[in-house]
Specification:
Elements (H helix, E strand, L loop, with lengths): L5 E6 L17 H14 L6 E6 L11 E4 L3 E3 L4 H12 L16
Parallel strand pairs: 1-2
Antiparallel strand pairs: 1-3, 3-4
Helix pairs in contact: 1-2
The chain binds FE2/S2 (inorganic) cluster.
The site of FE2/S2 (inorganic) cluster has 11 residues, from loops.
Length: 107
């Protein structure tokens, strides 16, 4: 049995400004990670869902990116409302949030 029902990884990788790939830190990844933490507290995820910061997830061009396991669903949230929708609909509700999916990374 898995230790957690779900695991949310948010890329916060930071690259030099000169790097053409850019990075999720420059595109709001730290805010996204903080908003997931806040959602976790508000929704009492402790012991059930983990929201972790991650290094590069190799999807830089779509950043900021988030991946939710065990389903392996990739999202690109931009706002606190986007994070709230993923928390409410997917993590707590089990329904994938189609409008926030990363095109091409979800099968
Ligand atoms: S920098 Fe975020 S996926 Fe690569």
């Amino acid at each position: 049995m898995a230790r957690f029902e779900r695991h949310v990884f948010t890329c916060i990788n930071d690259r030099d400004d000169a790097d053409a790939r850019g990075c999720c830190a420059q595109r709001g990844g730290l805010d996204i990670a903080a908003w997931f933490k806040a959602e976790g507290k508000a929704r009492n995820w402790k012991g059930r869902v983990r929201a972790n910061k991650a290094g590069c997830l190799d999807a830089c061009e779509f950043g900021p990116v988030v991946v939710v396991y065990p389903e392996g669903v990739w999202y690109s949230p931009r706002t606190q409302e986007d994070v709230r929708a993923i928390a409410e609909q997917h993590i707590d509700g089990g329904q994938i949030v189609d409008e926030l999916l990363v095109p091409g990374l979800n099968g």
